């Protein structure tokens, strides 16, 4: 995708532009034409970023980015209409078109988040997550009604038409829908860990900035202090830019697809982050509840009521007990997950080399083929058979043979270092490598490196052991469009390499296999 190499410089340029805009707004506070022009340019840039994302994005999440693009375009067009009414002194009625597009922008963002949640069909982890989301939503709705919506409606009724009131009340109501989706994302651990943290942070931060700015906008509109080209416009612009830049980061390679030897430490790190994240989000509803209780005490002077204080203390103790139970359950679940993780590791990894076994390799290959069919990436499967391994076993014994297999696994991991690779041991002296995001030239380099690594002598228990490798490869999608085809073609290429004397690699090319 274009601009990926310019991502950091673009962020620096936009940051400098925002800083210059702030300085000019401070220097010329009454020049509405200058301010509105400066504030309109970032919206066009954000739309351009979203268009590029949709243009080059493939797979299921293209629809998500399409909704984001439509929302950004609606926002930019609404700003153009509103600013044009300022530049050319157009009738005030034309701003209703801008209001309609701004509401459309919020609806598009809401639909994008709903689509994102629907993609994660398994993100509801029981009734507790649902209740946590509903509790937080009840708190937010209550606070919004109490301090934002109802007071501002009463103010707007004194100086606005009913149509204007309805149009502007839609903003906080649709914002509540966005907040509800964001809460589901927060309470769905699978979403937080599956997608790039940067992408999710940019999107959610941008949308939260819109929600907060909308709340202040409704208040300023109600009291008659809102003006075009003000600081709220800048907050909205920064939010739309964050959402636009999220699209550039969505093309990064997913985390966690590293080499096989780093998988264990990565899994443990994710497990530790998961435990901390689960505990923080578990106490979030209680924090919100006590915040509302504090407001209730302050509003109605209940701190002088002994009965209420007694009930509150009892409730506080029960909630503290509940938090202790949650923490205890979290520790028990952590131990269970550790035990299950150990069992899963034993079931999916080779005991001698600690590499993934056939079962895990097949599963990961299925996932890679599915992802490649959606994204258009190229991947390759490599089969490796150790030449003369039986002779080593017969001459030096099975102990040396096991040492040799272990050292072969280390050399294979070294040969694919720096690549998005999965090295596995199928059985005996047979190994496989899956390469993702690989080019034809990159595949040739890896194959040559594997042959070179295996041809070097192995120093094992004062014995200099000489073996080599028969290597075969097939790539997706040109030389195999399914897992079965890739495995069959790579295996055929490997056997041809072995029949020609070994210590070489072959690349499957349809009916013809190229010899190297």
In short:
With 516 residues, the protein is of the alpha+beta class.
Please give the radius of gyration in angstroms: 30 Å
Biggest β-sheet description = 6 strands, mixed
First CA to last CA: what distance? 33 Å
Count of alpha/pi helices = 16
Transmembrane segments: 12-28, 34-52, 64-88, 100-118, 130-149, 169-187, 199-219, 231-251, 283-300, 306-326
Keywords: Membrane, Transmembrane, Transmembrane helix
Organism: Paenibacillus phyllosphaerae
Pfam families: GGDEF
Describe the structure.
- This protein is of the alpha+beta class.
- The chain folds into three domains: 7-249; 260-348; 358-515, Reverse transcriptase/Diguanylate cyclase domain (Alpha-Beta Plaits).
- Helices cover 71% and strands 9% of the residues.
- The strands form two sheets. The chain has a six-stranded mixed β-sheet with strand order 2-3-1-6-7-8, with helices on both faces. Strands 4-5 form a two-stranded antiparallel ribbon.
- α13 (389-396) packs antiparallel against α14.
- This is Diguanylate cyclase (GGDEF)-like protein.
- InterPro entries: DGC-Regulatory_Protein, GGDEF_dom, Nucleotide_cyclase, Rev_trsase/Diguanyl_cyclase.
- Keywords: Membrane, Transmembrane, Transmembrane helix.
Summary keywords:
alpha+beta, Alpha-Beta Plaits, 71% helix
Topology of this structure?
Blueprint: H1 7-27, H2 32-56, H3 62-87, H4 95-119, H5 127-159, H6 162-186, H7 189-194, H8 197-223, H9 231-249, H10 263-300, H11 306-348, H12 358-375, E1 379-387, H13 389-396, H14 398-415, E2 420-427, E3 430-436, H15 440-455, E4 458-460, E5 463-465, E6 468-476, H16 483-499, E7 504-509, E8 512-515
Helix pairs in contact: 1-2, 1-9, 2-3, 2-9, 3-4, 3-9, 4-6, 5-6, 5-8, 5-10, 6-8, 8-9, 10-11, 13-14, 14-15
């Amino acid at each position: 995708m274009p601009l990926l190499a310019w991502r950091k410089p673009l962020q620096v340029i936009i940051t400098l532009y925002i800083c210059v805009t702030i300085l000019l707004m401070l220097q010329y506070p009454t020049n509405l034409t200058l301010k509105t022009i400066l504030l309109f340019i970032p919206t066009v840039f954000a739309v351009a970023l979203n268009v590029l994302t949709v243009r080059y994005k493939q797979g299921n999440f293209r629809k998500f980015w399409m909704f984001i693009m439509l929302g950004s375009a609606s926002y930019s067009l609404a700003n153009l209409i509103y600013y044009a009414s300022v530049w050319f002194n157009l009738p005030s009625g034309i701003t209703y078109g801008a209001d309609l597009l701004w509401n459309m922008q919020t609806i598009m963002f809401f639909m994008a988040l709903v689509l994102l949640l629907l993609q994660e069909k398994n993100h509801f982890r029981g009734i507790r997550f649902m209740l946590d989301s509903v509790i937080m939503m009840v708190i937010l709705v209550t606070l919004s009604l109490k301090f934002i919506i109802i007071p501002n409606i009463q103010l707007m009724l004194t100086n606005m038409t009913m149509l204007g009131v309805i149009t502007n009340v839609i903003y906080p109501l649709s914002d509540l829908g966005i907040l509800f989706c964001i809460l589901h994302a927060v309470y769905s651990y699978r979403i937080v860990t599956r997608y790039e943290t940067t992408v999710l942070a940019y999107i959610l931060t941008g949308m939260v900035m819109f929600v907060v700015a909308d709340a202040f906008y409704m208040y300023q509109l109600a009291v008659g202090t809102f003006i075009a080209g003000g600081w709220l416009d800048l907050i909205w612009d920064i939010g739309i830019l964050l959402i636009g830049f999220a699209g550039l980061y969505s093309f990064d390679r997913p985390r966690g697809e590293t080499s096989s030897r780093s998988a264990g430490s990565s899994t443990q790190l994710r497990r530790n982050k998961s435990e901390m994240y689960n505990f923080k989000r578990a106490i979030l509803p209680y924090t919100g509840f006590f915040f509302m209780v504090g407001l209730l005490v302050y509003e109605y002077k209940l701190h002088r009521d002994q009965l209420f204080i007694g009930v509150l203390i009892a409730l506080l103790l029960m909630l503290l007990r509940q938090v202790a139970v949650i923490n205890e359950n979290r520790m028990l679940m952590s131990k269970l997950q550790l035990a299950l993780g150990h069992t899963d590791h034993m079931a999916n990894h080779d005991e001698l080399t600690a590499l993934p076994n056939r079962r895990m390799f097949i599963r990961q290959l299925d996932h890679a083929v599915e992802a490649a069919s959606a994204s258009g990436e190229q991947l390759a499967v490599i089969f490796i058979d150790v030449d003369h391994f039986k002779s080593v076993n017969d001459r030096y014994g099975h102990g040396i043979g096991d040492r040799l297999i272990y050292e072969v696994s280390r050399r294979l991991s070294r040969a694919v270092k720096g690549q998005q690779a999965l090295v596995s041991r199928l059985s005996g002296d047979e190994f496989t490598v899956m390469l993702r995001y690989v080019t034809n030239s990159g595949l040739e380099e890896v194959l040559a490196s594997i042959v070179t690594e295996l041809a070097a002598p192995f120093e094992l228990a004062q014995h200099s052991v000489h073996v080599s490798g028969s290597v075969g490869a097939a790539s997706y999608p040109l030389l195999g469009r399914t897992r079965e085809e890739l495995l069959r073609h790579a295996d055929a290429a490997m056997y041809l390499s072995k029949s020609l004397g070994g210590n070489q690699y072959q690349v499957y090319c349809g009916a013809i296999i190229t010899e190297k």
